[in-house]
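2024-03-11 09:14:02 DEBUG pipeline.ingest accepted 1 chain
2024-03-11 09:14:02 DEBUG pipeline.ingest length=660
2024-03-11 09:14:03 DEBUG pipeline.predict start
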Amino acid sequence: MTPELVLLILILGLAAVPFRRLLGRHRAVALSSLLTMVVLAVVGVRLQERQTEDLRAAREVFDKATPIVHDEDGYVGSDACQACHPGEHASWRETYHRSMTQVASPEVVKGDFDRRSIVDRGREYRLERRGDEFWVELVDPDWDWFTNGGQRSPLAAGATAPRVWRQVVMVTGSHDTQVYWLPGHHDDRRLNFFPLVWKIETSRWVPLADAFLKYPESVEYLTLWNRTCSRCHSTNPRTRAKGGSATNTVPMNTAVAELGIACEACHGPGQEHVEANRSPLRRYELHLAGDDRADPTIVNPARLDHERSSEVCGQCHGMAFYSSPLDRIDRDGTPYRPGDDLDDTRVLQDPKDPKQKRYWDEVVRNDPVYLVNHFWNDGMVRVSGRDYSSLRKSACFTKGKVGCLDCHSMHDADPNDLLVRDRTTDQVCMDCHREIAAKPEAHSHHAVGSSGSSCINCHMTEVTYGLLKGIRNHQIASPSVAEQLDIGRPNACTLCHLDRSLAWTQDAMVRFWGGEARELDADQKRYSAAILLALQGDAGQRALIANAMGLAERRAVAGDDWMVPILGHLLDDPYGAVRYVAERSLRRVDGYADFEYDMLAPGEERRTAIAALRERWQARRRPDLIRDATLLQAADGLPLDQELRRLAARRNDLQLALGE
């Protein structure tokens, strides 16, 4: 309690006496009231001075570190849209696009900074909340950059790493994950990544190498928002490296039109539109014209054809390299504006395009695992956020007219997936495939209304990985056994009938849709295809199978009690991301929501928990549950441990760092 507040309480107590006992004595009342007002004024001024000093200090840190937000190049900010478009503005504000990047504040920050210490890979991080501010103590990120020449490498042997306190000034993410950004030097707007992320669904801190699928020895402390995140997580960003250098160690004076994905990211700069529509007569004329007349001063993606409207999404949701030099983009930003031809400013990456062969040869020489960290072997994108790259390879896009806006909306959709309300994804398919729509069971060989009758379950399966889950790939394609044999990608049948072998899947496919059967080995004929991938696949494949085991729709088809030993095996996976996904799926199995396990615990502790899990599972076994060698279970219901160990010994241990 401050001295001023103590004095105020005493004065008010004395002043109360005349009011109670001497109400008629006006002089005493006036005197006490005057004293009270003086004290209140003194205290108020002092408190205001202190608050102003605190705010000034905090504002100084923010002003020197966060990107400059101002109207340039015709951008006016989303607030300018609200007066005329209140409904669209309100629906956009509910999306996670709007809150993708925000200045740190108590209303925004979800992570627990309540005086805690976390150690990861030999480094300690101390977290602390100071009023409305969030602080961390860690090895100086600037020292990391400059000591290691800006390379992503561990600290130099024998070097003394200085520790500093840095304030969290900016936040990326508000849906699944939040990451936090720390300022660099005071004369610099470089924002360094805090290498712990907050998982919103589980309310816990997870290290970077475990929150994103990276090999266990991965050490990536050196990530800059200005280069890695700004181009898609803000509106009209310009890195503006001083001196025009594209290296990461130079000072940066980054500017944006707006933090997050705002109105003008999709509709283009709004200055001309705002100025033109200051006239009420013009607004009324456009209103009377309705949908028959477009306003030429702004871009409405809904009025563009399916290619141009999809390119609006593709400016961020595509894996591409720029046509312009990076130095120019750093200085001026990307020249693309909504409504432009996206191909004029960037080229979509496609490892199967003969024209890009020289580029990919160079990439692979420098990074032998780049391709597998981003693509499946047939060129399909395997990591999240590149949906336009996938859609553009689909016949529905190239031969038909299906675009992003046929399924998604920024203004009339659930913020979780932005799927258009009151229209199912199957309806989008049926608009073109009317013969199938007339007799759906003849095509799908599944009952209408079942999960196997869903178009997207068969043709847009969850074979894209990102944010610790499987995501539907937007390269619309038909499932095949070949994609699992030759490419390693789980097919739609495998991801739904998790309890079935590849031989069973192949028999069904040949019987229903024709084609030639492929030769399978003994394990592929005998064991569940999902189990084989869970035990023998690379880390990305293992994560996808673990994720599928947690989906209620899939468990309803395949059952889930048999999954417990397989998920238990994955709880000791070397990749933290795989352990995270397996734990989440296990807790969704009936009877295991309270299972005690920590994915970040030392290996011995994890194995003790897994042993307890097996005992619990065996104690819960019931005679009516399936005993099936396909599921690595013997006639007595116990796991076939020897076979499990044999299969797991063939695990693909390629060091992955998926480029989510």
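2024-03-11 09:14:41 DEBUG pipeline.report Residues 479-660 form one domain.
2024-03-11 09:14:41 DEBUG pipeline.predict end
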